Amino acid sequence: MTETLLEFFKAMAHDSRLRIVGLLAQGERSVQQLAEALSLKEPTVSHHLAILKRQGIVTARADGTTRWHALDRAALEKLALRVLQPAAPPKPAPDAFDDRVLQAFVAKDGTLKQIPAARKKRGAVLRWLMRDFAAGRRYPEAEVNALIQTHHWDSATLRRELIGHRMLARKDRVYWRLPEAEWKAGGDA
Q1: Would the pTM count as exceeding 0.85?
Q2: What contacts 183, CB < 8 A, 6 or more positions away?
Q3: How far apart are CA 120 and CA 116, in angstroms?
Q4: Which of 10, 110, 155, 162 is within CB 3.0–4.6 Å of 148 for a Cys-Cys bond?
Q5: Is there a contact between 169 and 162 (Cβ–Cβ < 8 Å)?
Q6: Are 50 and 57 a contacting pair, CB within 8 Å?
């Protein structure tokens, strides 16, 4: 990620490229139009466009003998999401007990066959569910339900269990991941 950001900022660290991006944000332009608007020579504009294309910031399409350049908004949005999204929490070291429980209770498609009745086994399943929740991020209740329902239909029960095990906290129907050091062990809940 750091290397991607570094390359992006290097590409954007030139006045002409920033101005090109600004013009392309308003709509498609040809090299000739950009050169005229920026008072630059066409080869210079082509050089800057090549750098922006390598970074995936700009796209080009041919129309006869003219190449039209446009800002790739989707690529910029993806980059922004990657930059602004908190890093995923580190994965805990494999736990033999948790692995056995998950093999018994989780189907190959990632759905939960049933919620374990035993607290210790339920704790293993809850730790597994917590992989979907990023540290430092706030989740509205509907999103918590949607994340849980990708694994099991009973999101209300599992949501309460995650709160009861101090894995998630909530206030005003907004939820967030608590540090693992605060989690109750499976048998202590």
Answers
A1: no
A2: 127, 165, 166, 167
A3: 9
A4: 155
A5: no
A6: no
Contacts (Cβ under 8 Å, ≥6 apart) of 143: none
pLDDT at 44: 95
pLDDT digits (tens, 9 = 90+) for 101-119: 999 999 999 999 999 999 9
The domains of the chain, with CATH numbers, are 2-84 (1.10.10.10), 96-182 (1.10.10)
- Looking at the predicted structure, is the pLDDT value of residue 164 above 60? yes
- The answer to whether 141 touches 173, Cβ cutoff 8 Å, is yes
**Angle formed by the axes of helices 15-26 and 42-54, nearest 10°:** 80
Pick from 45-49, 84-88, 109-113, 174-178: least confident: 84-88
C-alpha–C-alpha distance, residues 177 and 183, integer Å: 10
61's tokens: 């399409």
DSSP string, 49-71: HHHHHHTTSEEEEEETTEEEEEE
- pLDDT, tens digit, 9 for 90 and up, residues 55-99: 888 999 999 999 999 998 888 887 777 666 665 555 555 578 999
Give CA–CA dist 155/132, Å, rounded. 14
